[in-house]
Design goal:
It contains ten helices and twelve strands. By secondary structure, it is an alpha/beta fold. It has an eight-stranded mixed β-sheet with strand order 5-2-1-6-7-8-11-12, with helices on both faces. Helix 5 packs antiparallel against helix 6, helix 5 crosses helix 8 and helix 9 runs antiparallel to helix 10. Bound molecules: ketopantoate. Belongs to the ketopantoate reductase family.
């Protein structure tokens, strides 16, 4: 069976739409979701330009059996089901790129999928707008790599295509560290802003600051136990720097809560609590955070 040169993008949320719109003129791709048909995707760029992109949209049952690559952009808790559906439809050795937050879907998928699995860590900002719209709110940087540093050529090739499409991407051999770093930041910010329904910058208020500091202190201990190198500035300064830089953001978990969607609580806090158990560490601030966070 010959390989179809097209990429599949599984999940038509903000990230899936952003990939589909950005790739439209560079790399033949198919957006897989519930909604099919020929409506163009309407992307608002960070510069405020509104662009219409013709994007092929199919259900998975209509997708080619040997796509060149599959981007999985669903939420973390939907990855297992997505891989089950993919396994029934596409060739077992198809390369997959995972775009989830946390550190739950990635090791599981790397173990179970027969083909190469790359993980992405991105700081691209995007949100959906209506049925066919996506707002690319801010340019970011994406890193791409295999958890054990395998498939460097695939990571380099995929990164080059994404970069040419306007999503700056670098292949790397330390994606595990990058995933844990993002998880640490997400753990300190996302649950609290979702619980209190506040923007990121409001965490600087005296009402929240001590709780953020306590969470970051526990996360720092866990990262050391997991032998994850700390950021150059140290964990506290790193997290407060992100809060400062994203002060006006409504974090993704807050957006989920406001839209009545399931949150990424388990993908973000689960691996930390599991690491605490493995290392016999007491983490009362994180346990309380898990109990307070909507699922
Ligand atoms: O990644 C984020 C998110 O919203 O998920 C942060 C860094 C918290 C920015 O809002």
């Amino acid at each position: 069976m010959t390989t179809d040169p097209r990429w599949l993008i599984l999940g038509a949320g903000a990230l899936g739409r952003l990939l589909a719109a950005r790739l439209a003129e560079r790399q033949p791709s198919i957006l897989i979701g519930r909604r099919t048909g020929s409506n163009p995707l309407i992307m608002t760029t960070p510069e405020g330009e509104v662009r219409r992109h013709a994007v092929v949209r199919l259900t998975l049952a209509e997708a080619p059996r040997r796509p060149a690559l599959i981007h999985v952009t669903t939420k973390s808790h939907a990855v297992d089901a997505a891989l089950d559906q993919l396994a029934a439809r596409v060739a077992a050795d198809t390369p997959v790129v995972l775009w989830q937050n946390g550190f739950q879907a990635q090791p599981r998928a790397t173990r179970r999928w027969a083909g190469p699995v790359l993980c992405a860590v991105t700081s691209e900002g995007a949100y959906t707008h209506g049925e066919d719209g996506v707002v690319h709110a801010g340019h970011g940087l994406t890193h791409l790599g295999h958890l054990e540093g395998r498939y460097p050529e695939l990571a380099t090739r995929t990164s080059a295509t994404l970069t040419a499409a306007g999503l700056e991407t670098r292949a790397c051999d330390d994606i595990r560290r990058r995933l844990w770093h993002k998880l640490a930041v997400n753990a300190a910010i996302n649950p609290l802003v979702a619980i209190h329904r506040i923007r990121n910058g409001e965490l600087r208020a005296p009402a929240y600051r001590p709780r953020v500091e306590a969470i970051v202190a526990e996360v720092a201990t866990l990262m050391a136990a997991e032998q994850i190198e700390p950021p150059e500035t140290g964990w506290q300064a790193h997290v407060w720097g992100v809060i400062e830089g994203t002060a006006n953001n409504r974090a993704s978990m807050l957006q989920d809560v406001l839209a009545g969607r399931r949150t990424e609580r388990d993908a973000i806090l689960g691996p930390l609590l599991e690491a605490a158990r493995r290392h016999g560490l007491s983490v009362p601030a994180l346990e309380r955070l898990r109990d307070d966070t909507p699922q």
